Amino acid sequence: MTAETSQTLDRGLRVLKLLADTDHGLTVTELSNKLGVNRTVVYRLLATLEQHALVRRDLGGRARVGLGVLRLGRQVHPLVREAALPALRSLAEDIGATAHLTLVDGADALAVAVVEPTWTDYHVAYRAGFRHPLDRGAAGKAILAARAKPAGECGYTLTHGELEAGASGAAAPLLGVTGVEGSVGVVMLADAVPERVGPRVVDAAREVAEALR
Length: 213
Description:
With 213 residues, the protein is an alpha+beta fold.
């Protein structure tokens, strides 16, 4: 810690990170051991975070991330969308297909940014806010593939007709962005995705990831 930082705030943020990394919550004793501070300090940190709904404690006394974190998370989408738009515009214009940035939202894939090409006679209408199960469509399947493979082995995912009849999709996962799980992809009216589209989508996903770091 330096003179310009707050030790209490630092500890509070560390509590949130520890709770976010567990599905079953943590007790005061477990948090005390992980933080290297006494239980009284942990009680005070939890009480403050509970006042802001950032932490909740169940009947067994285990602390978990609270619903207040969701309200903060909603403000992240506009920032992510703004950072991704240049790469999405370039992708849409280059391929001549609708480009999108998709993030994980619970068990769903949620489109948070969409760019349609300006020069095509027709293209797939795809709107920000559209959601679908992670295991359907290229965007969600690319995210699941990234979960299952080491980062260096992730490429792109192709699908056809899974979300819209006659439409094909290609998507690549965002890699190396802390706290963001998502993919960049395109959707087009075609029986098959042209060969050059997959590598181009991977490049776009890399550009978006770099903009978010």
